[in-house]
Amino acid sequence: MRICLHASALAVLAASAWGADWIVYAGAYTSPNNKGIHAYRFNDSTVKLADIGLAAESSNPSFLAVSPNRRFLYAANENSDGAVSAFSIGSNGTLKLLNTVSSKGAGPCHVAVDHTGKWLFAANYNSGSVAAFPIHGDGSLGEASAFVQHSGSSLNPQRQAGPHAHSANLSPDNRFVLVTDLGLDQILSYKLDLTQPVVTKVAPASGPRHLAFAPSGRFAYAINEMLGTVTVFQYNAEDGRLKELQTISALPAGFAAANSAAEIAVHPNGKFLYTSNRGADSIAIFQIDPAKGTLTVAGQIPTRGRSPRNFAIDPSGKFLLAANQDSGNIVVFRIDQSSGALTPTVETANLPSPVSLVFVPAK
């Protein structure tokens, strides 16, 4: 009998098997002070974030993804000649480059691995396209086997004169890949071979960026970069269709300055949702209605840095690590398991331009 486990279930099993020690990989824009992917050891009992050092050189690894078996790591190399890189994960946080292939577009800013570990998807922001890549048994990548070039525009002439695919998100049942396109104000639900898209439109000038699913698989949440809102959808597993249920502001009350919303994540317990604001420099906290999937504002907390582009919740669900790109620091917050509230700890790490965080069990 074949048993398939969702990625979140694998994370829970890994946490129980490996204990409280994790490797945190941080992707960052490269500079004279940073050559690629950095590694830290994090202990969710002692709450210590220890610097391991450079794990691998990689050009502008702006988004990272880990295979379901936790043996391989993949990076989007966000350059004009876009690429995606594959690494094997060794002991003590080391990474070994397996290969690099063209992303088939410019400015890839997001990668995702399907739940079987056999396919990787990349969203090319600058050129507005999405590509699928076979993953070989040794973790290396084949050349793109499917490719779609988006076309069109939306309301904002500066930001939306053309398509800007911003993320590729696997559905919980692994039947669809949902691509958010900031330039089109659309979420396109493709089959895994990138055919037969079902298109969901969001409000004009919203700029959908990233997507997160509820653990139940019944609801999906999109963070809209340009308007600083979250749109709640009911997810139809039959055809990948999304039905809008609610749109709610992710900005602090009364905030009127320039802002660019960035990351979104649902807590493993399914009770809370978090988003990040660049401008307000905060994490927004929402409580989730388990029956309806809708959101209620539960607070805002400063990230103790500038431009929190990305954050990640540790597999135990006890901590949230925020990557502040412009101030060059990673801050550890404790998560209240009853309310979802965030409390900053004393643990921080300094790293130039951190923009993506992922957890892997320590070996």
Mean pLDDT: 94
Main pleated sheet: 4 strands, antiparallel
Q: What percentage of the residues does DSSP assign to strands (E)?
A: over 45%
Low-pLDDT runs = 1-19
Adjacency order of strands in the biggest sheet: 3-2-1-28
Number of contiguous helices: 1
Attribute tags:
28 strands; globular; single chain; 363 residues; 4-stranded antiparallel sheet; 1 helix; mainly beta; Methylamine Dehydrogenase, Chain H
Molecular structure report:
With 363 residues, the chain is mainly beta. It has a single domain, classed as 7 Propeller (Methylamine Dehydrogenase, Chain H). The protein is 3% helix and 52% strand. Strand 22 and strand 23 form a beta hairpin.
Task: Summarize it.
The protein has one helix at 7-18; strands spanning 21-28, 36-43, 48-57, 61-66, 72-77, 83-89, 95-102, 108-113, 119-124, 129-134, 146-149, 165-170, 176-181, 186-191, 198-201, 208-213, 219-224, 229-235, 242-249, 260-266, 272-278, 282-288, 295-302, 308-313, 319-324, 329-335, 342-350, 354-361. The protein is mainly beta.
Secondary-structure blueprint:
Blueprint: H1 7-18, E1 21-28, E2 36-43, E3 48-57, E4 61-66, E5 72-77, E6 83-89, E7 95-102, E8 108-113, E9 119-124, E10 129-134, E11 146-149, E12 165-170, E13 176-181, E14 186-191, E15 198-201, E16 208-213, E17 219-224, E18 229-235, E19 242-249, E20 260-266, E21 272-278, E22 282-288, E23 295-302, E24 308-313, E25 319-324, E26 329-335, E27 342-350, E28 354-361
Antiparallel strand pairs: 1-2, 1-28, 2-3, 4-5, 5-6, 6-7, 8-9, 9-10, 10-11, 12-13, 13-14, 14-15, 16-17, 17-18, 18-19, 20-21, 21-22, 22-23, 24-25, 25-26, 26-27
